[in-house]
Write a structure and sequence with these properties.
By secondary structure, this protein is mainly α. The protein has 8 helices and 3 strands.
């Protein structure tokens, strides 16, 4: 593909139809759950790498200008692994094939295939809203995983985790966050229902 990553988002010529961008088209629960299971893992370094790679994949999709370009991308790359490599000058590039060296990001074809399939299932008018939802999700995860303070604030405010439980190192916090989103940590419910005086005074 040879597309350079991180060139910035483009919002093309919708000045007269900005109301279309206000229509939220959510991701399916199945796709969101699979993305969460892929990105929100206990290994902090790998979690951040996966979040960055997903964010770059989404940015690339959003740069496609119209439905024809989207459909061409899906036909060419929607059933392949997604590889992110680093050139000698330090710039990131999306690679068509698994590079011999310099791999910095990877998304397996099973996940790319599912994402592409759901994108193609959207009506033409709904695709921009769906991609905005995907972009918002990937950007949120990237921001959280890049900033330990944001992760702590998210755990406290969104998951009602007691402050004392957020003093672990970053690996443990990310593991706890993954468990909460996956519904594997009963402490999420304990914190949310802590109106009986069970928490610290």
């Amino acid at each position: 593909m040879g597309r350079r990553a991180g060139d910035g988002d483009q919002e093309e010529g919708l000045d007269e139809g900005d109301e279309l961008l206000e229509v939220e088209v959510p991701l399916s629960e199945d796709l969101e759950a699979e993305l969460e299971a892929f990105v929100l893992i206990a290994d902090a370094t790998l979690a951040l790498s996966r979040a960055e790679t997903l964010d770059i994949l989404v940015d690339g999709l959003r740069e496609l200008e119209d439905d024809d370009a989207i459909e061409e991308w899906v036909a060419d790359y929607g059933d392949r692994d997604f590889h992110l490599a680093q050139e000698r000058d330090g710039s990131l590039v999306v690679s068509d094939v698994f590079p011999v060296a310099g791999v910095v990001g990877f998304i397996p074809r099973s996940l790319v295939r599912k994402l592409s399939s759901e994108l193609m299932d959207q009506d033409s008018d709904d695709r921009p809203g769906w991609m905005e939802s995907l972009s918002d999700l990937s950007s949120e995860w990237l921001a959280l995983l890049s900033d330990e303070e944001k992760m702590v604030g998210h755990l406290i405010r969104a998951h009602q985790l007691p402050v004392a439980r957020t003093e672990d190192d970053l690996d443990e916090l990310i593991g706890r966050h993954a468990g909460l989103h996956a519904g594997e940590d009963d402490d999420a419910d304990d914190g949310a229902d802590d109106e009986d005086g069970d928490g610290d005074e």
